[in-house]
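Researcher: Next sequence.
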Amino acid sequence: MPTTATPTLAHWMLQEIHEQPATLAATLARYADQNGFRDDTCEPIREWLAALKGDLVIAASGSSRHAGMVAEITIEDLSGIAVDVEYASEYCYRCEQSLKDAAVMIVSQSGETADTLAALRKAHAAGHKTFAITNVPASTMANEATVSMPTEAGRERAIPATKSFTGQLLVLHLIALLAAESRDTLTDAAIDQHLAAAAALPELIASQLEGWEKSVREVAEKYRDVENFLFLGRGVHYPIAREGALKLKESAYIHAEGYPSGELKHGPNALVSEKTPLVFLATVDHNEPDSVERYQRNLQLMADMKAQGANILAVANEGDGEVEALATHVIAVKPTSEWLLPICEVIPFQFFSYFMSINNGIDVDRPRNLVKAVVEE
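Model: Next structure:
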């Protein structure tokens, strides 16, 4: 990780986008090696999961909440544990009568976010077991939680979350696999296969960074005058649509909203025009039937929107001719597991928000009205 006060690249945000292969590799190495999960770092997590009797509540804010939303689907699908994702600021006021035997996981880059820390302390006061995922191992949340599982993203200087977000996604994916191990919902061979895919992720991303930066820079130039976007995703990709929209808002001061793809025709479609482009997450894992079904539905919706005259920017598998025939512009992503695609597809969105902010003359590392850690509500 860089130690100087000046980024090697043009901005800290750009540099931290490029650091993600290294930070993902470091995060994975903390918890797993070629033999599987490491006992020294994972045994406390296994014990926490073994003691889990009721539902799991994830409380977080901002980008961290989007990571929690990805985890909700991944943990439920792989382990069968019921998960509820709360805004940390709302969890603080939730009635505890509905949360008997629940365990509470909090997710925070800094480990100091005021409303998330308040949620952690409320959970403790109610007698719940707690779990902290932070990027600062010595943070207040890490110290106060029953169990802590830090990411290895290193210091993140830019206000928009990039490497800390993908680090959270990877750690939450590992938790889903450990939960599946504890519930015997995946075989040892299947868990090994998931870990092998995760181990290949840093190199997979590194091989695409240069291409993404070039192609997204060109796409951002095409959209430089656009003031509204609708981001669309299904299943585990819907939270990434929300994250892409948030990145545009906080980095480039552009209005954007993230929706489940199937909700587009239930109102938001009234906004769709040449001046309000659609950003589709249209990747697919052809080895997962549910992923294929979502993909086919996305193709149909894209076809409907093209017939309506929509301007479509799609993130899709490399070489996907069907998406290319329907979209105005395509950003290509190399195939990987359905559960790891969110880590890959969010990085083009990070580049997109970066270049859109540069086009608007914004100090991308220090957006107005925002701070790195919201330590006061």
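Model: The chain has a mean pLDDT of 93. DSSP finds 13 helices and twelve strands in the chain.
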